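Reviewers of the previous submission asked for a worked example of the structure-prediction workflow described in the proposal, so we include one complete record here. The input consisted solely of the amino acid sequence. No template or homolog information was supplied to the procedure at any stage.
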Amino acid sequence: MSFAPLRGTAAEASSLAHPSIAVKIDNHEEARPQIALNRTDIVFEELVEGGLTRYVAVWHSDVPDEVGPVRSIRPMDPDIASPLGGIIAYSGGQDQFVAMMMATPLVNIVFDFDDTGLFYRADERPGPHDVILRSAEAVSRNASLAPPPVQFHYGTADPLAAPALAAVPTSRIELVFSDGRFPAWDWDAAASVWLRSQEGSPDAEASGERVRATNVVTVRVAIDGSYGEVPKTVMIGSGEAWVSVAGRTAHGTWSKDAAGSPITLTADDGSPLRLAPGNTWVELVPGEGSATFTP
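From that input alone, the workflow returned the following structure tokens.
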């Protein structure tokens, strides 16, 4: 058995011998329910224009046949996706943002440029929230690319139990990105997962399952206004962070020193903040927003 680098779980080595695929996933109301979010290894939620959010969703240990709806790239996405290597898929974007992503080492798969059948429009979904990616086929065509490197430190199923981490019991996480986007996570002790809501309603994926996560990592980020109405999450730097796992939350800091470097999570006592083996959502909450952790 080997170690799944983006989940920290045990897996057959042969099942991991391929690249990850990061996909820009729509989170407009008309894009919901999204496809296969619960099969992700990592999801990053970011603020975009109009107070909405979008996801950079990453699959490696369990690549679905299809994912979506796929939307366009934003200026922070090269800094989010570069540490993963492998593949990035999106539907297009402003020329300057596409050029920024094309300049990374990742293989870019772009709906606007694709003539090989990797994307299609789903008749049952309203446009432009209808672009679906044949993700397993995209990975198969690029199988010679290296698997992703490890992004986070992993520990036990209850990695925040050490008293030095000063983790506090947490039953609910409430996050505010904007007036229009305020997701929340509730701890389900019986299932040992966080269950997601959006704007006060349970958040389900296309399978009908409630969207869930083993780990919720919340980081406070600055917003760069250089691109006008398009906010750029500042990913290179440092700031406040919280790791929520197993019904506990520990406070610390995050840092990232270059586009190609992963996010480093450090507890207030200077030790690494470790995650539990499983999937992770990274909530990139702007400084003007808020994060509340309820016992």
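The chain has a mean pLDDT of 97. We consider this example representative of the routine output the project will generate in years two and three.
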